[in-house]
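pinned: reference chain
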Amino acid sequence: MACVSSAFVLFLLPFDDLGAMAATSADKSVDTGMYEKRRLLYESIALKSGLDWHFVAAIDQYERTMSRAHPKTRPISENAVSGVYVTESDWSGDLNPETNDSNPSSIRFFRGIGRDGSGDGVADRRKDEDALFSVAAQVAKQGSAEDDLAIGLWEYYHNTRAVQRVMQFVMLYRHFDRLDLSGNAFPLPLESTYSFRSTWGNSRGWGGKRIHEGTDIFANYGVPVKSTCYGVVEMKGWNAFGGWRIGIRDLNNLYHYYAHLSGFDKKIKMGDIVRPGQVIGYVGSSGYGRPGTQGKFPPHLHYGVYRDRGLVEWAFDPYPLLRRWEREELKSLKASKH
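pinned: its structure tokens
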């Protein structure tokens, strides 16, 4: 059920891929009314399932990121409040002759996961309440303690990455206690001296034949590097290619990668929650060698973005995003001065 392989494969796609564009801008188009509808839905499902609403929200958000990444195989209505998608066979049961079964009793007999979450006596997989309650109930089968829920997530998704993502989203929702975490920031102070252009796909010379998977922002040593998003610090340390680097996962299931740093903010550690504009490190020229290697190229920030699709992780060109965040921040600064 909802089996997503834990195999990790990296794909590189140009930013004009429609799926990538939708993935990065989806939450910016969500209005306040939709967040209110989601919050009411999560609180309702929380009461019925015995789960914390933050946990219900995290499951739904992970499902939403998968539905956005696979719109052809996980079609969701544009007006849907929930992002959950369940196949007909999983919903009704593999041996159920009625593939569109909506009778809770017969679904249960054939061991389908479909449940009546709205209380109308019908288990309709196209209904937000029913779909989300059904998945939440599956995950909660082992119990409502944190470890039990992690086991429940594994048994539903059969994917350690899915378990990690949901638990990261739970952390974010609990920390901020709200659903709207869609703000962004440009990764360097606008008052600093910097320059960048699109370097997506350029060839790289060190470490074998490969292409550039992000945008280089050239700046002086020690210029603060800021988080571009609300997220969880997923990776921090040395990488032979990226030097001192840090990786942050946001609620859109995007992995923001900051490389070639001269150092990290002293308070930042793995598992920390960050917000847009928070300093996480400093521009440097580390990398292309053993831990501590510096100066093999001019100081700059390498910024990359990767999208988790469950089966694969793929990179796309972050240059348009950086330009947009730069413009938005400049516009906000000008408005604040008037």
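why pinned: Residues 38 and 276 are 23 Å apart (CA to CA). The first strand starts at residue 10 and ends at 13.
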